[in-house]
Design brief:
By secondary structure, this protein is α/β, with parallel strands linked by helices. The radius of gyration is 19 Å and the shape is globular. The N and C termini lie far apart (38 Å). It is 40% helix and 20% strand. The model has no long low-confidence stretch (mean pLDDT 94).
């Protein structure tokens, strides 16, 4: 019997997850639009052949609430991006995981952050306070980057990076978004979890800085649907090191595939499929 899986969220049309998972483990992997507040009803419609779901925005907090069991990382962050239907006899249990943390940590490590020769990366700035920001916080902790600052519009509420930090007993410096650019110039690493429509303004402000020099500074722009964003372009044009958002997608998908199948996927095939898709979209050459 063909095993089924899907990526769910909204908007979803840009997702490369189906391409990655089909290449990695031969999945019949769909892309399905599910709006906020609709995940519970959607789960009731799934046939028994489903092994799991990749969960994207805006459903990651919702998925955490609906999971019957979550691993420790997902639970403390309150963020689930992977739902696995774990067989339990004649039924199954819905188990939640977070592979975004591994995706962020592994993509940064691949570009030199967190390695033994990357001692210059001691401070980090997270732009945004939502689900991906919470995962970024945990990834930075794993990489032993202790000086963490958040610049965000929303600072209150249970589904924020600040509530995650509270559960982790971690103090965070918090600033408004209008201070984002000065903070980027100060910190060694910036992780943007914001859409390009927001960061475009930061790019213009950065570009106006006289004698702008971003050499030795890292930027992970978690969005890839509009890559390269104006922020990415300004960063690269002024000597900065960019970790593309599609690297986060790749590394978290590898971890998802392991959870869906119980084995290591064909990672080389996943990389080839991703590079081919990015080239077709004109993102890489």
């Amino acid at each position: 019997m063909q095993k089924l899986a899907a990526v769910v969220g909204y908007p979803i049309q840009h997702s490369l997850s189906p391409i990655l998972h089909k290449a990695g483990w031969g999945a019949d992997f769909q892309s399905i639009a599910v709006h906020s507040g609709q995940l519970a009803d959607f789960l009731l419609t799934l046939p028994a052949q489903y092994v799991g779901l990749a969960v994207t925005m805006p459903l990651k907090h919702e998925a955490c609430r609906l999971a019957q069991l979550s691993d420790g990382l997902a639970k403390v962050l309150g963020v689930v991006n992977t739902l696995v239907f774990q067989p339990t006899g004649n039924t199954s249990m819905l188990v939640g995981f977070n592979t975004d943390v591994a995706g962020i940590a592994n993509s940064l490590t691949a570009y030199g952050v967190g390695s033994h020769d990357s001692a210059l990366v001691k401070s980090a700035l997270i732009l945004g306070s939502g689900a991906t920001a919470s995962s970024a916080l945990a990834a930075l902790i794993q990489l032993q980057i202790a000086q963490i600052t958040v610049s965000a519009r929303r600072k209150a509420g249970i589904n924020t990076v600040f509530s995650a930090a509270h559960r982790l007993h971690l103090p965070l410096e918090a600033f408004d978004l209008d201070l984002a650019v000065p903070l980027m110039l100060e910190k060694d690493l910036t992780i943007s979890t914001l859409p390009s429509m927001v960061t475009d303004g930061f790019a213009k402000e950065l570009a106006s800085v006289a004698t702008l020099d971003l050499r030795g500074k890292f930027l992970l722009d978690c969005s890839y649907d509009s890559y390269p964003s104006q922020l990415v372009q300004v960063w690269e044009n002024n000597g900065g090191i960019v970790v593309p958002g599609y690297e986060l997608l790749f590394y978290q998908a590898v971890e998802q595939a392991k959870l869906f199948t119980g084995r290591v996927p064909d990672i080389a095939a996943m990389r080839y499929a991703l590079d081919t898709a990015l080239a077709e979209r004109g993102i890489i050459s």
